[in-house]
């Protein structure tokens, strides 16, 4: 995975598939190209100032993890672990849209992230 | 379902005969003979191909060797998919043995996950089990099991021990009789030609009226193209 030094504002411009989520949601979820993700920090992981993000369904867990790492300005050596339902770590190539379909609630997918294995 | 021992054994002991050949791109000190191996359908490539790696390392210099990866007719094989799925997806219509090409350099970063050790496979396997149980039982059964029970599940797979595996897996395959089934069926539909890796959605095994649903019902609702108008099956 490529890890360049980028400022947070740059990553948002480079990542049109990840945007701040609108507060109101209308329309059937099947037709929406983006799903709402709520990011929650675990352990000593820094808390994201913006927790709610609108993410394209086809985006993978790995690319979301890379986005979070860049946003939090983590060191290249620092790992990031992502969990669903506070119980399992989805495969890095898993699409967030599929996770939302199966494990979303109240119109959003809650993902916990941490710098070490939490529910390994 | 856990009583259908014959079916469970047939599924567990399914094997695919494979022939591993070193890629001509690799640098060798002498000619490499192909290596033949029976692959368990329910396992993972990186878990069962240590002998393949050892066989080819004998004819190679250490400096020419990086992480081993496998490919079939130009397509890198994703080790984190069960072997049976990989074979059915890529080679089910071809003659046996399954001819797989072995590589030790130019790891395809965009197509494959790295697999540094067996603990990576174990973590992936356990995550799959947990994800499935989240759908079947809201995760309650897997969470109520002890760490040593989880370990036994993994060791059963790693060491190809049907009884050891199913002693634990049977708990994950039970449901209260009054429910009539799991909360949702954990399934994935893989297609050869598709822009997405697989189809995975929520599906209840019992209809709102209380009828037990079949695989055909699931396909009709989520992948109708798999079933012809005449009621037959599409070859996919």
Automatic annotation (TrEMBL), chain A:
GO cellular component, one term: phagophore assembly site membrane
A Pfam family matched in the record: APG12
Source organism, top-level taxon: Eukaryota
Positions with biased composition (Polar residues): 1-10
Membrane topology: Peripheral membrane protein
Localisation per UniProt entry: Cytoplasm; Preautophagosomal structure membrane
Keyword entries, A-Z: Acetylation, Autophagy, Cytoplasm, Isopeptide bond, Membrane, Ubl conjugation pathway
Stretch list, region Disordered: 1-31
Recorded GO MF terms: Atg8-family ligase activity
Function recorded in the entry: Ubiquitin-like protein involved in autophagic vesicle formation.
Similarity annotation: Belongs to the ATG12 family.
PANTHER family according to UniProt: AUTOPHAGY PROTEIN 12, UBIQUITIN-LIKE PROTEIN ATG12
Name of the molecule in the record: Ubiquitin-like protein ATG12
Species this protein is from: Carassius auratus
Gene this chain is encoded by: atg12
TrEMBL record, chain B:
All residue ranges annotated as the Autophagy protein ATG5 alpha-helical bundle region domain in the record: 120-174
Protein name per the record: Autophagy protein 5
Gene Ontology BP annotations: autophagy of mitochondrion; cellular response to nitrogen starvation; piecemeal microautophagy of the nucleus; vacuole organization
Gene Ontology cellular component terms for the protein in this record: Atg12-Atg5-Atg16 complex; autophagosome; mitochondria-associated endoplasmic reticulum membrane contact site; phagophore; phagophore assembly site membrane
Keyword annotations: Autophagy, Isopeptide bond, Membrane, Ubl conjugation
Membrane topology: Peripheral membrane protein
Domain Autophagy protein ATG5 UblB: 184-226
Domain of life: Eukaryota
A Pfam family per the record: ATG5_HBR
Regions that span the bilayer: none
Protein purpose: May play an important role in the apoptotic process, possibly within the modified cytoskeleton. Its expression is a relatively late event in the apoptotic process, occurring downstream of caspase activity. Plays a crucial role in IFN-gamma-induced autophagic cell death by interacting with FADD.
PANTHER family: AUTOPHAGY PROTEIN 5 (PTHR13040)
Principal localisation: membrane
Record keyword Ubl conjugation present: yes
Oligomer and partners: Forms a conjugate with ATG12. Part of the minor complex composed of 4 sets of ATG12-ATG5 and ATG16L1 (400 kDa); this complex interacts with ATG3 leading to disruption of ATG7 interaction and promotion of ATG8-like proteins lipidation. Forms an 800-kDa complex composed of ATG12-ATG5 and ATG16L2. The ATG12-ATG5 conjugate interacts with RAB33A; this interaction is bridged by ATG16L1 and promotes ATG12-ATG5-ATG16L1 complex recruitment to phagophores. Interacts with TECPR1; the interaction is direct and does not take place when ATG16L1 is associated with the ATG5-ATG12 conjugate. Conjugated with ATG12.
């Amino acid at each position: 995975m490529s890890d360049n030094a980028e400022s947070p504002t740059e990553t948002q411009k480079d990542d049109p598939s990840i945007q701040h989520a609108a507060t109101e949601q209308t329309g059937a979820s099947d037709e929406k190209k983006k799903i709402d993700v709520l990011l929650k920090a675990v352990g000593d992981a820094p808390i994201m100032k913006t927790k709610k993000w609108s993410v394209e369904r086809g985006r993978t867990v790995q690319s979301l993890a890379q986005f979070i790492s860049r946003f939090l300005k983590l060191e290249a050596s620092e790992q990031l672990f992502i969990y669903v339902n506070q119980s399992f770590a989805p495969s890095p190539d898993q699409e967030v849209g599929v996770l939302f379909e199966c494990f979303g609630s109240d119109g959003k997918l809650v993902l916990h992230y941490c710098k070490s294995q939490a529910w390994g | 379902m856990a009583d259908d021992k014959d079916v469970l054994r047939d599924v567990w002991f399914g094997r695919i005969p494979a022939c591993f050949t070193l890629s001509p791109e690799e640098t060798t000190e002498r000619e490499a003979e192909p290596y033949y191996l029976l692959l368990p359908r329910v396992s993972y490539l990186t878990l069962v191909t240590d002998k393949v790696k050892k066989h080819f390392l004998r004819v190679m210099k250490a400096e020419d060797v990086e992480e081993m990866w496998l490919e079939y007719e130009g397509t890198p094989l994703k080790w984190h998919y069960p072997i049976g799925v990989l074979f059915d997806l890529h080679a089910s219509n071809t003659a046996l043995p399954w001819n797989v090409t072995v590589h030790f350099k130019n790891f395809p970063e965009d197509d494959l996950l790295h697999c540094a050790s067996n603990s990576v496979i174990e973590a992936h396997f356990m995550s799959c089990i947990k994800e499935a149980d989240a759908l079947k039982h809201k995760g309650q059964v897997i969470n109520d099991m002890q760490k040593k029970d989880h370990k036994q599940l993994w060791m059963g797979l790693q060491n190809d021990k049907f009884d050891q595996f199913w002693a634990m897996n049977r708990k994950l395959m039970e449901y209260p009789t009054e429910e009539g089934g799991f909360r949702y069926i954990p399934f994935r539909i893989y297609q050869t030609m598709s822009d997405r890796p697989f189809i995975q959605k929520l599906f209840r095994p019992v209809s709102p009226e209380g009828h037990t649903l079949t695989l055909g019902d699931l396909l009709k609702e989520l992948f109708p193209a798999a079933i012809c108008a005449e009621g037959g099956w599409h070859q996919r």
